[in-house]
Amino acid sequence: MKKLRSLPLLAVLVLAGFTGAIASAQNVFVSNPGVGGIGNGAVAEYDPSGNQINPSFTPGLSAPGALAFDGSGNLYVANGTVVSEFGSSGNLINMSFASGLNNPQGLAFDSSGNLYVANNGNGTVSEFDASGNLLQAAFISGLNGPEDLVFDQSGHLYVANSANNTVSEYDSSGNLINAAFASGLNNPQGLSFDGGGNLYVANRGSTYGGGSVSEFGPTGNLINASFAPGVNLPNDLAFNGSGDLYVANSGGSGGDFYIMEYDATGHLINTLYDGGFFVNSQPIYVAVDPVPEPAGWALLAAGAVACLGSWRARTPRTQPSA
Fold first, then answer.
1. Going by C-beta distance under 8 Å and a sequence separation of 6 or more, which residues neighbour residue 42?
2. Can you tell me the distance from the alpha carbon of 285 to that of 56, in angstroms, rounded to the nearest whole number?
3. How far, in Å, CA of 298 to CA of 16, rounded?
4. How many CA atoms lie within 13 A of 164 on its CB side?
């Protein structure tokens, strides 16, 4: 009977190990618009070590751009004037999930499952519900070359404005909070938050061999103007569940385009997909396969402990023999 006392602890350890295994097994998805971004692009899938799993995870695209996963693990791709939806295995669900867009760039989902699209062509952000119905063509307007979108944990929306080198902040209703939450940038493109609420901005710059990734605190204070050294025209950012940052570098020559992976302190871990994976193309956008929320796994572990404890309480004790 003493072994039963260790079962709850064992359940926690097993579930924790299982959660860690899932977090470390997140695959990486990269959109490659092709030569000139017309007609021959694809979204490729790679494992965390940079091994190509599928060179064309999403078929039938003409000029794939920004990527975003919804809460169910479906992948959405900005594709010309529409946003296309694919299942978790790459199956096409809806080629025109969201349509009527104007040079769509960044994509982001809010906590209710609504999709927001940055229209670079007319300086707006459009809002669609979880079924692809248009809610607001101009949820936000008057933007300056919007490139990417990201929500923080409070539901505030941040927009990278490439034309005036700022990141602006809006509340969940689209009201402006701060026109220059982050400033002093250089052609800002990709945005991403880490688990501590710090905002990272890909400064693409304009010169081959240039660009940087800047880190800002939750109040917009500059923490590090050059968090990720060695980047080359960075265009997009994405964190995995372990807190590592992936940077899509659109600069390169002779097909030498690449994704760089950094740890939480800004040290380079790996240069992924180097050596011609993206010949005649550019890795413009990057996204990481979502994993279950840590809180969900904690609840699952707690439930397992409770169930095992209840089972133990109902198990009759064996009486010692006389």
1. 31, 32, 34, 55, 56, 57, 58, 59, 61, 64
2. 15
3. 8
4. 12
- Cβ of 91: how many Cβ atoms within 10 Å? 11
Kindly give, in sequence order, each residue whose CB lies less than 8 Å from that of residue 96, ignoring residues fewer than 6 positions away: 82, 83, 84, 132
Q: Which among 56, 33, 60 is positioned nearest to 45, based on CA atoms?
A: 56
Supply the angle between the helices 7-24 and 294-314 in degrees, to the nearest 10: 160
| Contacts within 8 Å (CB) and 24+ apart, 216-220 | 216/167, 216/181, 216/182, 218/152, 220/169, 220/178, 220/181, 220/182
Nearest to 230 by CA among 265, 261, 195: 261
What are the angstrom distances between the C-alpha of 269 and each of 201, 222, 273, 284? 19, 24, 13, 20
| C-alpha of 240 from chain center | 8
Do the Cβ atoms of 199 and 158 come closer than 8 Å?
A: yes
pLDDT single digits (tens) 261-313? 999 999 999 887 544 444 445 667 999 998 654 444 444 444 444 444 544 44
Two structure tokens written together for 213 = 């990734």
Indicate if the alpha-carbon torsion angle 263, 267, 273, 279 is positive or negative: positive
Residues 6+ apart with CB under 8 A from 120: 102, 103, 104, 105, 145, 146, 147
Structure tokens at 262: 């950094």
Q: What's the pLDDT tens digit per position in 194-207?
A: 999 999 999 998 77
**SS3 helix, strand, coil % of the chain, rounded to 5?**
15, 40, 45
